[in-house]
């Protein structure tokens, strides 16, 4: 069964596989999140209830969060107030890479914007499962 996701006109399955976005909201699944053009912070429901007041901050993970409560709720440290400028050039195509800081970035552009080296291509959770050996390398800016 398919459903429309509000005014954005995306067609998403209504399976419940919650994800948390940089806006601090829990979405039914990744399709609904992407339909709103929001970046995912975790493959789980958002752990905190934060106000939706907009006072954007940039996290050390290179993502812009709607406010500091949402940033802290995601367990991310503050890099700077305001948006992460470099990320305005990044596309939202999900090609996960594991940074040398053991944080999974949406793609190489996000990792580069955070100023972090590349450990390997793929989700950092593979480290915890013992499938990848962590060998950090530094790469130039790529998108």
From TrEMBL:
It comes from the Eukaryota. The keyword Transmembrane helix does not apply. Keywords: Protease inhibitor, Serine protease inhibitor. Gene3D superfamilies: 3.30.60.30. Pfam families: Kazal_1, Kazal_2. InterPro entries: Kazal_dom (IPR002350), Kazal_dom_sf (IPR036058), Serpin (IPR053265). Residues 2-49, 50-84, 85-126 form the Kazal-like domain. PROSITE patterns: KAZAL_1 (PS00282), KAZAL_2 (PS51465). GO terms for molecular function: serine-type endopeptidase inhibitor activity. SMART domains: KAZAL (SM00280). The keyword Nuclease does not apply. PANTHER family: GEO10195P1-RELATED, SERINE-TYPE ENDOPEPTIDASE INHIBITOR. This is Serine protease inhibitor dipetalogastin-like. The gene is LOC111102632.
């Amino acid at each position: 069964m398919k459903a429309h996701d509000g005014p954005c006109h995306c067609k998403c399955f209504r399976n419940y596989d919650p994800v948390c976005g940089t806006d601090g909201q829990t979405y039914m699944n990744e399709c609904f999140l992407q339909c709103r053009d929001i970046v995912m912070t975790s493959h789980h429901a958002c752990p905190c209830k934060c106000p939706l007041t907009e006072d954007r901050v940039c996290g050390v993970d290179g993502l812009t969060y709607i406010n500091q409560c949402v940033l802290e709720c995601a367990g991310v440290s503050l890099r700077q107030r305001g948006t992460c400028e470099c990320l305005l050039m990044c596309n939202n195509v999900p090609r996960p890479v594991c940074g040398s800081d053991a944080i999974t970035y949406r793609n190489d552009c996000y990792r580069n914007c955070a100023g972090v080296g590349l450990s390997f291509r793929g989700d950092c959770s593979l480290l915890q499962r013992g499938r990848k050996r962590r060998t950090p390398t530094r790469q130039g800016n790529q998108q």
